[in-house]
Write a structure and sequence with these properties.
This protein is mainly beta. It is built from one helix and seven strands, in the order E-E-H-E-E-E-E-E. Helix content is 11%, strand content 35%. The strands form two sheets. Strands 2-1-5-3-4 form a five-stranded mixed sheet. A two-stranded antiparallel sheet has the order 6-7.
Amino acid sequence: MSQKMIAVKVFRQDPEAGTGPSFDTFAVPWQPGLSALDVLDYIYQNLDSTLAYYDHAGCALGICARCTGKINGKAGLLCQTLVEGDLVLEPTSAERVVKDLVVDRGGK
């Protein structure tokens, strides 16, 4: 039996390097209980270690809100959003991107 794969489109931009904005698409194995943050961890650990995002070190409990992003066009916490199928992951504000899914939260 083959494992179900999902397509994950991730926003990419590095203003310091002058790259982006663009999207990269990754094939990620799906399993029940997988969160959007778990998907990013998989991509970082297995497919592209240059991906910038807020990882589980913050809390992973939906308390700190560091992992807020757009999930299929709607704002939500990546650590609390369960994945049911293909995803599009974007930062909350494309104007304040530090790199990829990391945004300046300083309120400029």
